[in-house]
Amino acid sequence: MEQNWNNDQEEIEIEYVYELDDEDDASDDGTSLEWEIDETAVGERLDKFVAEAIDDEAVSRTQIQDWIKAGAVLVNGKEMKSKHRLEIGDVVTVNVPEAQPAEIVAEQIPLEVVYEDSDVIVINKPRGLVVHPAPGHSSGTVVNALLYHCKDLSGINGSIRPGIVHRIDKDTSGLLMAAKNDTAHASLSAQLKDHTVTRKYIALVHGKVPHERGTIDAPIGRDERDRKMFTVTEKNSRHAVTHFNVIERLGEDYTLLELQLETGRTHQIRVHMKYIGHPLAGDPMYGRSKTVDLKGQALHAAILGFEHPRTGEFLQFEAPIPDDMAHVLHSLRQR
């Protein structure tokens, strides 16, 4: 970790840097996945390994077993059964089948609509609501709610994720945009890829962050010790950059931050804050066991800005932090 100090600015800035060669800032999604088995996975069942290695929001273990039966999952280039036990050095390849049409039912789930027109809709997602269905679990998501609310959504992401341009974690609250047609979807996706979308979050983290602002430039990939998690690593990773500013220090134990995403990796803020020693309060995966009373991480997507795909006007929206997070902050201030 390299610290770059800049004393010319009004406040000292620290930059946390993890060196890595430049690489394309592409989507985390792909049609082919591959892993080489090390000592941590020796003896695991094939279906269990793949289910843990793939993002658990994207596909179920039952779906993995169906893929194995269909020959889409190979071990050293050969078809195996779900119960096959893996050995060190094995190469597991998953050729993800194209999404098949699925009937995602429109559901009357309440949505807080912040903005809507014929091209785009922006909602304030509550904590606990999953963004899109996963195979085998097709209800109770933002997509189900959008299908009920909107007459049409873009089809670029297929029947499982209609209209979804980006997503936030289930237990992260805040602003999310969706596209109502393919032209709008293409425009918003291009803006995300070009880093011109403004995405700012409010987060409560453990510890007293010593610097007023900083940048975490550290590549993120899957944790080899626990494939459900992500970590800062050079191996099979993608470039990830998060900027932060201190809003308020709450004694020695907590700090309230504003964070801005430059890239959009899975669990990026949660991984980066753990990496610098200030994990998100309430985070069940990357946080501490002794933390605040909150059902999920204290992370809220507060500001979202983008260029309207039809008019070219820059639109920016802001959502106040949810009541549960506000209650935690009030309690900490009263100590």
From TrEMBL:
InterPro entries with a match to the protein in the record = PsdUridine_synth_cat_dom_sf (IPR020103), PsdUridine_synth_RluA-like_CS (IPR006224), PsdUridine_synth_RluC/D (IPR006225), PsdUridine_synth_RsuA/RluA (IPR006145), RluA_PseudoU_synthase (IPR050188), S4_RNA-bd (IPR002942), S4_RNA-bd_sf (IPR036986)
The RNA-binding S4 domain sits at 44-110
- Gene3D superfamilies linked: Pseudouridine synthase, RNA-binding S4 domain
What EC numbers are recorded for this enzyme? Answer: 5.4.99.-
Which keywords does UniProt give here? Isomerase, RNA-binding
Q: Which reaction does it catalyse?
A: a uridine in RNA = a pseudouridine in RNA
Name of the top EC class for this enzyme: isomerase
Pfam families found in the cross-reference section: PseudoU_synth_2 (PF00849), S4 (PF01479)
Alphabetized NCBIfam families for the sequence:
rluA_subfam
According to its UniProt record, which protein family does this protein belong to?
Belongs to the pseudouridine synthase RluA family.
What is known about what this protein does? Responsible for synthesis of pseudouridine from uracil.
Q: What is this protein called?
A: Pseudouridine synthase
